[in-house]
Amino acid sequence: MNYDEIAKKDMESREFQTSNEQITENEQPKVTSLGKASSYQNANNEEPAMLPGYVEIWPEQFPSKGMFYPSGIRFFIRAAEVKEIRHFSTINEQDPFTIDEALNEILRSCMMIRMPGRQMSYKDLKEEDRIFIILSIRELTFPKGENQLIIKTNCKDCGHENEIKVKNESFEHNEIDPKLMKYYDESSRVFNVETRSNGIIKICPPSIGVMMEITKYIVKKQQEGKKLDQSFVKVLPYLSQDWRGFTESSINNLEIEFMSWNASKYQTMYALTDMCRVGVKENLHVECEKCQVEVTTPITFPGGIKSLFVVSDISGELL
Q: How crowded is residue 8: how many other Cβ atoms within 10 Å of its Cβ?
């Protein structure tokens, strides 16, 4: 079973599940530009009922295609409100750690994850799915396109200026290496890679919770003036499949274990981390409107990262 077949199977299962849920008369599903959306309540769920304004977004649409989440998991998002936008407007765009925290705060406030019989958190979202969710929340926040992000780039062949809208549909996703796909275990939702010299290596894209703890670890090391082992930092996000219980102590223990690896294990793990990437590609591609030649440009946010949720051009509000 390949990458697309797994996503299709999950989608069919989810559609069957949804069709059998009880939806009250005032909670009829509706189609939005984000895909299938519905208000959601489950009387048997210990979680509070879903609040108005949330819509469901399907993991099969994510860059990861939902492959690394438990079967039956559901994601709901809402538009950012004034309090979130106000907080987002204060970020220091020169500090990558501050930006990271601000993006995670949007997720914490505007996304809910539900899983029968299990408490879920925004930290369970895979890091490489984050930009998809952020842009989806942004789409709900500006439903009339009142805060469009447009990258202008000139065609190298004819010089024509093309415009590319920064939105999920504009991005291309990395595909998992077929060599790795054969090790995908649908029951555990990770890759169980069989190796000649190092047994079975479990690996999957890291969650936001894992990355948050690693960020704290890096910041602390920098504040203490201690040198970071970049080779360890490279593989660290892939050494833990769950953020729960993943602490500074866990990282220190993993570093001790890492130091005992032989060259074969490190090279294998290093290669697997690259093969496991499922996020968006670094460049946007568009066909030139004038000469139809492919135009490529790096992904940027015109007006800075704040422009994701802060309207920089207020001319539409002026009389």
A: 14
Closest CA to 166 of 283, 16, 310: 283
Task: Assess contact for 109 and 122: CB atoms under 8 A.
Answer: no
Q: What is the dihedral of CA 203, 206, 212, 216, to 10 degrees?
A: 40
- Mean pLDDT by 10-residue block, N- to C-terminus, for the chain (319 residues)? 59 50 39 42 41 89 94 95 93 91 96 93 96 94 84 90 85 87 95 94 96 95 93 96 94 96 94 89 85 87 86 54
Q: How far apart are CA 84 and CA 111, in angstroms?
A: 12
Q: Find out whether 77 and 36 touch, Cβ atoms under 8 Å.
A: no
**3-class DSSP state of 2:** coil
CA 234 to chain centre: 19
The whole-angstrom separation of Cα 158 and Cα 293 is: 9
Domain boundaries of the chain, sorted by first residue: 3-147, 178-275
CA distance readout (Å), 79 to 55, 82, 143, 256:
9, 10, 9, 44
